[in-house]
Task: inverse folding
């Protein structure tokens, strides 16, 4: 399903402490200028502040999609996932776990905590970009998301 | 001694101071088939002759003139020469008989006596003496054994109180036998152990059961811990009444210590291996992250700036991209290798024939490209981790196909049983391996050929070795360079299968 209004970009929140990865996603999204706004936070506290629009995040939009790395400082990504999925206000936002781990344990834990999808970061740039393209294609063009 | 006396005539010496009687006895003995060695009239004469002649038996009048008298003489004869003495006497009074008894004679004959009486008394005396000798020899042997063996030999009564202890107890526990007697075995143990062993022993005793290798901790007189291994059998008196136990205690403190030390070392080794495995896993896992960054950005650099900088820059970027790609493969393999070593094995029955069919479907591309023929026969059921065993077969079969010499690869897989394990053989007709590399090829990241000729990461056989070793087997190779190689590995026979074969 196409964005009804091309002028309104999709808001993506990337919970990731590695700026390199954030930049890679940004570079990927450059191919479709104006369609996506990528916001990055690096730990559980920033995530909470962003979602609740506190402090310096007072003016941020509500994200349409969340990309979540599991390997975060302070509390790990699993706890962040649990927090989002247990909050009635945010639990409908699709959360894509995007991590370097391919361990069964992590995959199971993520789905148990209601992750919408689990993806292992491909080590190759082209594959990485292809995965990001696939994510936005699926979630913004194929899937129908809940209205705010 | 016993048998000899009956084959040769029995040699009898007579001590009798009445010459007429002596002659009479002598004649009667000869007539009965005994050899009368000689006659002495006095004790002094008798001792000298007996010493020289060493008769089998002495017939002796209790009443001799002079000193020593017959009874004293008999005592000496028995003690010094171990020759049995039969008393002849006309005096059957109580006092004489009582006195005679003390000399422990082997018989009495009251004068006058019949030939039959003489003969039966002599034979009975010889028989008893023979038995005595055997008993003494056997007692001697027993005593020597008890003293020689390093175990402590003991006896307890029905109340578990020591009634005998061999001197060895001093070496083991520091107590002299006389200090042990009167104590119970439990007095020698620390309190907790005493309770435990006592309960165990009382249970055995209630059933009058013998026991072997009952391990128990004791305290040496100096306080040191001594581990004993006790073996005992119940004792019954001649009427069949239970009257205690006797047995041996062996000091196994050193053995236990060595065993404990060995177990501790094994445990430490396992722990350190496990830590090493974890370390490799974590290290290689954590290395992946920064490497992914380097790889991604150098690839991005190439994508965006290829042909826009100078040709040197293009070349440098090219080598960087190549290097990072290789490093990624290495780390992935290292991770894979460490997982094979650290992951918990999930063993289940595996039909190796079925497994080969599966392996064939995995390596189908290699088979199609090379025109390989892969055959197998009589592959058994084994117990193993299906993922790891599949990997093992897959690596060996794909190696067998990969290292071909231009001919169509022929790969043959077989297994034969050798006692309690299977010996698998994977034979190929490829390039073979020089004997000097038989060991090296199983080491991680060891390659014998340039990447361009036979591609690979040098991890396949290292993984095979790890898988086989984790399944309690061995792996090795035999080869004739140019003609092919055969990889062998062993896997234990399925315990269920083992029973069926028995």
Result:
């Amino acid at each position: 399903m196409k964005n009804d209004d091309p002028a309104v970009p999709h808001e993506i929140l990337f919970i990731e402490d590695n700026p390199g990865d954030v930049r890679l996603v940004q570079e990927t999204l450059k191919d479709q200028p104006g369609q996506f706004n990528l916001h990055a936070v690096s730990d559980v506290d920033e995530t909470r502040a962003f979602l609740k629009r506190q402090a310096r995040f007072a003016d941020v939009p509500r994200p349409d999609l969340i990309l979540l790395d599991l390997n975060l400082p302070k509390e790990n990504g699993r706890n962040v996932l649990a927090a989002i999925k247990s909050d009635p206000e945010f639990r409908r936002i699709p959360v894509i776990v995007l991590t370097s781990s391919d361990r069964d344990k992590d995959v199971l834990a993520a789905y148990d905590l209601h992750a919408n999808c689990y993806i292992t970061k491909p080590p190759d740039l082209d594959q990485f970009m292809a995965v990001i393209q696939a994510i936005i294609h699926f979630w913004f063009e194929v899937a129908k998301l809940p209205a705010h | 001694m016993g048998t000899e006396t009956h084959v040769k005539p029995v040699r009898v010496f007579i001590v009798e101071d009445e010459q007429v009687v002596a002659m009479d006895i002598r004649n009667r003995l000869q007539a009965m088939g005994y050899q009368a060695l000689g006659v002495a009239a006095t004790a002094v004469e008798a001792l000298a002759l007996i010493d020289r002649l060493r008769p089998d038996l002495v017939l002796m009048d209790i009443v001799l003139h002079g000193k020593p008298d017959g009874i004293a003489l008999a005592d000496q004869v028995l003690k010094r020469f171990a020759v049995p003495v039969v008393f002849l006497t006309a005096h059957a009074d109580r006092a004489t008989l009582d006195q005679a008894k003390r000399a422990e004679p082997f018989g009495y004959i009251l004068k006058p006596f019949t030939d039959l009486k003489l003969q039966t008394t002599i034979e009975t005396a010889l028989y008893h003496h023979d038995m005595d000798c055997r008993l003494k020899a056997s007692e001697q042997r027993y005593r020597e054994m008890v003293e020689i063996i390093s175990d402590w030999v003991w006896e307890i009564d029905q109340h578990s109180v020591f009634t005998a202890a061999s001197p060895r107890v001093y070496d083991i526990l520091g107590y002299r036998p006389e200090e042990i007697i009167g104590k119970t075995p439990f007095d020698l143990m620390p309190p907790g152990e005493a309770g435990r062993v006592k309960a165990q022993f009382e249970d055995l005793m209630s059933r009058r059961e013998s026991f072997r290798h009952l391990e128990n901790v004791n305290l040496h007189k100096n306080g040191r811990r001594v581990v004993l291994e006790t073996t005992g059998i119940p004792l019954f008196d001649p009427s069949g009444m239970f009257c205690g136990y006797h047995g041996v205690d062996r000091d196994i403190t050193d053995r236990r210590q060595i065993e404990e030390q060995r177990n501790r070392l094994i445990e430490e080794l396992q722990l350190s291996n496990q830590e090493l495995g974890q370390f490799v896993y974590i290290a290689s896992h954590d290395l992946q992250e920064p490497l992914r960054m380097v790889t991604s950005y150098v690839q991005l650099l190439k994508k965006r700036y290829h042909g826009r900088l100078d040709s040197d820059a293009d070349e440098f970027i090219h080598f960087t991209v190549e290097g990072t790609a290789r490093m990624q493969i290495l780390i992935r393999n290292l991770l894979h290798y460490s997982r094979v070593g650290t992951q918990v094995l999930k063993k289940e029955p595996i039909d190796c024939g079925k497994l080969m069919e599966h392996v064939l479907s995995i390596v189908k591309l290699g088979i199609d490209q090379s025109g390989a023929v892969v055959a197998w026969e009589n592959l058994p059921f084994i117990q193993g981790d299906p993922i790891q065993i599949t990997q093992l077969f897959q690596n060996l079969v794909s190696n067998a196909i990969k290292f071909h010499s231009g001919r169509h690869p022929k790969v043959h897989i077989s297994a034969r049983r050798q006692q309690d394990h299977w010996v698998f053989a994977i034979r190929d007709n490829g390039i073979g391996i020089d004997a000097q590399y038989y060991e090296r090829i199983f080491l991680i990241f060891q390659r014998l050929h340039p990447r361009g000729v036979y591609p690979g990461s040098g991890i396949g056989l290292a993984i095979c070795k790890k898988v086989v070793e984790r399944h309690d087997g061995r792996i090795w190779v035999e080869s004739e360079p140019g003609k092919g190689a055969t990889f062998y590995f062993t896997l234990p026979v399925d315990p269920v299968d083992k029973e069926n074969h028995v």
Remarks:
- The helical segments of chain A are 19-29, 44-51, 77-85, 104-112, 125-142.
- The radius of gyration of chain A is 14 Å.
- Chain A has five helices and five strands.
- Strands of chain A lie at 10-15, 36-41, 65-68, 95-99, 117-120.
